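Final report, closing paragraph on structural work. Over the funding period we assembled a curated collection of sequence-structure pairs, and we close with a single example.
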Amino acid sequence: MKIAISITGEKPYVLDPRFGRCQSFWIYDTETEKEELLANPGLNAQGGAGIKSAQEMIDAKVDVIVTGHLGPNAFKILDKSGIELLESEPLETMQIVENYKANKCVKITTNGPAHHGM
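Its predicted structure, as stored:
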C-alpha cells in the first residue's frame, strides 16, 4: 500500500496541511518500506494547484493521501479516484504512518475552502 503525505521542509519531514501548495509529497510503501519524494507540481502554479497535485497523486498510483485539507477541485477529483483521503495534524511522517496503521487518522468527507492563485 502506498501512502502519500503532503510535506514541507527537510528531514524530519512534517505534514503540510496545504495539499495543493505543499512543497512535496512523501510516499511510503508499507510493503517494501521504501520512501519516495515527489515534487509538487502545484506549488508555484498560478491557479489549479489542487488539480495539478491531485493528478500527480493519481499518476503515482497512491492508495492513501494524508493531508490537512483539500480544496473543492482536488477533493472532487480525488474522491472519485478511489484513493482513501485522510487528515492529520502536522506530525512527522512516520508518526502519521503509525497513526494510519492504528486507525487514528480522520477520514476527509468534505472539501475545505478554495484558494485562488498565490
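Helices lie at 49-59, 72-81, 93-101. The domain at 2-107 is CATH 3.30.420.130 (Nucleotidyltransferase; domain 5). We thank the funder for supporting this effort.
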